[in-house]
Structure formats: C-alpha cells, structure tokens
Amino acid sequence: MASMNETPTGERVHIGFFGRRNAGKSSVVNAVTGQDLAVVSDVRGTTTDPVSKAMEILPLGPVVVIDTPGFDDEGSLGELRVKKSRQILGKTDIAVLVVDSTEGLQGCDLELIGLFEDAKIPYILVLNKIDLDKESEQAAAIGAIGGSGPSAVLKVSALTGEGINELKEKLASLKPTGDEGKLISDKLKAGDLVVLVVPIDKAAPKGRLILPQQQVIRDILDCGATALVLRESELEDALGRLGRKPELVITDSQVFGVVNKIVPGDIALTSFSILMARYKGLLDAAVKGIAAIKELKDGDKILIAEGCTHHRQCGDIGTEKIPAWLREFTGSELVVETASGTGFPEDLTDYALVVHCGGCMLNEREVTRRVKEATAQGVAITNYGTLIAHVHGILKRSLEIFPEYNYMEK
C-alpha cells in the first residue's frame, strides 16, 4: 500500500531519455539514478519498451525517469518502439537527448530535437562516451540545430561517471517552477470551514482515501482552513449540528445528486473530480465539451478514458454508472468504449465524445496533450465530475465558485 507521504506519480517531474540505439541511453539512465534501472548491452536495440520508475534523485527530488527505445529502430517491431517513444513525449517535462560522441548528431537526433521544440519541452543534449573520444568536437554541431536549442550541451561518460553530476545539476535547474496550480485553496481563506463528502462503499480502497481526496485535504490545510470529512449518510445531521454554515461542500461525484438535495442552496457545492480537472488544466475544455451531449444520438461512440488502471467492480463509475447516466439523459443507445492508463487512442475521430477522469495519476502535460489531441481532431472532451453534475442538472451550481468558467446551463 502506498504511503500518504509518497509523492503521487502525477505530481513528479517526468524526465525522458531519448536517442538512437546504442547511444548509451540506458547507461546514462543508470548513472544518473545510481541504480540498474535499465538493461545495458552492446547489442543494438536492447531497450524494447519504455522503462519508467518513480524515485528520488538529488538535487531534483521526486521524479519519474523514463528510458525509451532507440528512435532509429527498424522494421515493423522497430516502428512500434518508435511509436512508444513518441507517446512518451506527451508526458515528458524534461527531455535528455543522448548522442554517441564518437558518431555525432544523426538525422533521427535532429528529428527528436524537432519534436522537443514543437512540444516546447526543455531538453539537454548529452554527448556520451567521451571516455572513447576525449577530443570530441560535437558540441560545435549545435549551430545546426534550429529553434531555441538545448538548455545545455554536456559531455559525459556513463562508464566513468564523468559529467554525470553536472547533468543532474542541470536537470534540477530545469525543474518546473513558478505558480503551481491550486485545487481549491485559492478560493478559501484561513478559518473557512469545508465539508468533504466521502462515500465508503465497496469501491473505496480499504484503509485509506483515494488520491484526490488526500490532495484536497492537504490543500485546505495549507491555507489555514478546516476540513470536516464525513460520509453522505451523516451529512444532513452534521450540517444541522455545526452551528455555522460551511463556506463550501466538496463531494465525490458518485453521490452528487444526493448531496445536492441535502446542501442548502446558499452553500457552495462542487466535486473532487471538478477540482482535479481544474488543477490538471482540463476544466475549461470539459465545460465546453458538455454541449456535445445534447447532440448524441443512437449508435454514437463514447470513449471513457481513465489515467489509471484498476480492477473493475460491479457498479464501476467509468464502465457502468456514467454510461447508464448518459443513456438515460440522452434517451439514446450509445456505444461505449474504454481506455485506461497510457492507452489513450491516437485516432479519436470515431468518437462523438470523450469522457475523461480527473487525471490524478497523470501529470499536467499528459492531460493537456490529450485535450489538445481531442480538440485538434474536432472531438468534444469532458470529464467525470463535469458530466455527472450536468446530467443531474447541477453543473451551474457546481461551477459558481469558479465564475471564470462562465457556464450557462441550457
């Protein structure tokens, strides 16, 4: 069982190592992490699938390190490996391009640089194997690179460790900083009371709260507000006994309808899923995507997408409850397909609507990529909490605390 003190995967800096086969990517990864994370061999193309590991690297802190297959791989299997490398770009916060210093930059290296530039991913050009070529002048080739160029060009030897500390220091300097997104604390002040409604049913993880609930509680505490956590069965009694009105009630989406009937209209109400969508940069698209629901008709395909993988149970929200609510709301016989984890389709044009989870297990870059892909293909995208609030007729109320989203329920 994961500790509540562990940094969630979606909150870690994702560092992707890219390059040609046998450039020494895996050796550099092992040198940076201080672990045998990746298999190393003189045989070209040893890394056949992306290898990811959540860990701590000083001075960066919590990260996810990703070792990708060779980008110059050949044949049908090679094409699949290259495709996986491209998919990794969607969640990469910092890229490391490993080049064999004895061979220099090749065409596929320049192609990767173009992909980094297009995706606005900061990257470091690492010239590996300088133990074999001390006089390498490959750094001079940087002039041939277009765009903004790499954040640094470093010479390293994964074999001797030369330059590895400098690489780690540079990675740390590229760690995303600035104004971090807030779940709800920017809408609260010290002393506010927030009631959190957390159903405890067979779908709830035994002995712990789910990640969005943990994160919201911490965000509330960070701004000096008070969090009161209870089940929906105790909500009405608790509101009557509090002696003061809470400033906000946050509920699990699955009991949105029940909680809406209990909470007086002069108390703000929203859901964990809506907060996560806002935090991950999905909420604007999710609110706009709601308009597509009224256009759904018999035979339309809906994609239910989740960022995590878990065992499906009877009454599962993604595969059972949301499809049922959609069919009842639209009166249409809809075709529902599901995707989970990293399995987000590249071609979305067959779908009339994508319904995404809050994305707590995905980093913001990956969520943003998925939204951009749907938008670029002309496919509406929304999320669990937004859709559930809409089909229960309470989306306008759920967004009143966020007037910047300007939702007008029709």
Helix and strand pattern: EHEEHEHEEHEHEHEHEHHEHEEHEHH
Distance between the termini: 44 Å
State the share of residues found in helices, binned by percent. Answer: 25-40%
Rough outline: globular
CATH superfamily of the largest domain: P-loop containing nucleotide triphosphate hydrolases
Low-confidence stretches: 1-5, 39-47
Number of helices: 13
Largest sheet: 6 strands, mixed
Radius of gyration, rounded?
Answer: 24 Å
| CATH topology-level fold name of the largest domain | Rossmann fold
The domain tally reads 3
The CATH top-level class label of the largest domain: Alpha Beta
Order of strands side by side in the largest beta sheet?
Answer: 2-3-1-4-5-6
Mean pLDDT: 85
CATH architecture of the largest domain: 3-Layer(aba) Sandwich
Strand segment count: 14
Beta strand %: 15-25%
Provide structural commentary.
With 410 residues, the protein is α/β, with parallel strands linked by helices. It has three domains: 9-173, Rossmann fold (3-Layer(aba) Sandwich), CATH 3.40.50.300; 185-276, Rossmann fold (3-Layer(aba) Sandwich); 283-391, Rossmann fold (3-Layer(aba) Sandwich), CATH 3.40.50.11410. It is built from 13 helices and 14 strands. The strands form three sheets. The chain has a six-stranded mixed β-sheet, sandwiched between helices. β11 (301-306), α10 (317-330) and β12 form a beta-alpha-beta unit. The longest helix is centred in the N-terminal third of the chain and has 15 residues, at 75-89. It is globular and about 75 Å long. The two termini are 44 Å apart.
